[in-house]
């Protein structure tokens, strides 16, 4: 019987790609030094360097400053990113309806996210979803990163859940799905065309609201 559901953040609950473009449009408009290049060039290059969030923004800004040839502090740009990105956080369609439904079922809910503690917590608050979750684990704070199964087991212990009674939903086939399965959970893939489709036949969803049906089918 499923008693708890845990989630990845970026690419699962947070539509990071859309949120990032919203932030970059705003930052470009505010910082006139970037205007040496056209807005779409700035945004496209940032997204390329960012590599779906796997390159931290200190490196991205340093590279952009060098390529554009501008006299800006990457440290100040990074601080602006850390503090301002939360104002542009956009959730995937169905986010609140899905979370409301799961809370009505009295499920324990948690988040396990790789990343920097302050930044990721800002984004969770920016999405206005922090109050839904019983536990939130960020890799920097925990000293553990997915796909290390220890971070999944730590989360389950704090929630008082057994792996067999728990679901994990994430967009990364290895860090989220395979890792949670290795931890004894039911791993579900939130499909993302950025990643090659897993060779293994995982349960998968395209839209967050599909999780309601999966939960209902498992519970019956």
Largest sheet: 6 strands, parallel
Unreliable stretches: none
Query: Helical element count?
Result: 10
Envelope shape: elongated
Gyration radius, to the nearest Å?
18 Å
Portion in helices: 40-55%
Protein name: HAD-IA family hydrolase
InterPro entries: HAD-like_hydrolase, HAD-like_sf, HAD-SF_hydro_IA, HAD_2, HAD_sf
GO molecular function: hydrolase activity
Pfam families: HAD_2
Secondary-structure map:
Blueprint: E1 4-7, H1 16-30, H2 39-50, H3 57-68, H4 74-84, H5 95-104, E2 108-113, H6 117-126, E3 135-138, H7 139-142, H8 149-159, E4 166-170, H9 173-182, E5 186-190, E6 203-205, H10 210-219
Parallel strand pairs: 1-2, 1-4, 2-3, 4-5, 5-6
Short synopsis of the structure:
The chain is α/β, with parallel strands linked by helices and 220 residues long. The chain contains 10 helices and 6 strands. A 6-stranded parallel sheet has the order 3-2-1-4-5-6, with helices on both faces.
Describe it for me?
- With 220 residues, the chain is an alpha/beta fold.
- The chain is built from 10 helices and 6 strands; from the N terminus they run βαααααβαβααβαββα.
- It has helices at residues 16-30, 39-50, 57-68, 74-84, 95-104, 117-126, 139-142, 149-159, 173-182, 210-219; strands spanning 4-7, 108-113, 135-138, 166-170, 186-190, 203-205.
- A 6-stranded parallel beta sheet has the order 3-2-1-4-5-6, sandwiched between helices.
- The N and C termini lie close together (9 Å).
- GO terms for molecular function: hydrolase activity.
- This is HAD-IA family hydrolase.
- InterPro entries: HAD-like_hydrolase, HAD-like_sf, HAD-SF_hydro_IA, HAD_2, HAD_sf.
- Its cofactor is Mg(2+).
- Keywords: Hydrolase, Magnesium, Metal-binding.
């Amino acid at each position: 019987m499923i008693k708890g559901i845990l989630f990845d953040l970026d690419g699962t609950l947070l539509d990071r790609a859309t949120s990032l473009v919203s932030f970059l449009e705003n930052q470009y408009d505010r910082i006139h030094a970037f205007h040496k290049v056209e807005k779409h060039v700035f945004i496209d290059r940032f997204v390329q360097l960012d590599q779906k969030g796997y390159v931290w923004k200190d490196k991205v800004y340093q590279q952009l400053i060098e390529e554009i040839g501008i006299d800006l502090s990457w440290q100040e740009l990074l601080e602006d990113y850390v503090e301002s990105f939360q104002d542009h956080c956009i959730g995937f369609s169905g986010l609140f309806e899905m979370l409301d439904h799961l809370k009505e079922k009295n499920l324990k809910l948690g988040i396990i996210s790789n990343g920097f503690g302050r930044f990721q917590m800002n984004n969770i608050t920016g999405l206005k979803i922090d109050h839904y979750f019983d536990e939130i684990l960020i890799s920097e704070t925990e000293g553990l990163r997915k796909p290390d199964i220890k971070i999944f087991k730590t989360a389950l212990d704090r929630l008082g859940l057994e792996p067999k009674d728990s679901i994990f939903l994430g967009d990364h086939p290895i860090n989220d799905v395979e890792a949670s399965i290795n931890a004894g959970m039911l791993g579900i893939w939130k499909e993302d065309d950025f990643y090659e489709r897993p060779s293994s036949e995982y349960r998968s969803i395209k839209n967050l609201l599909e999780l309601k049906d999966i939960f209902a089918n498992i519970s019956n």
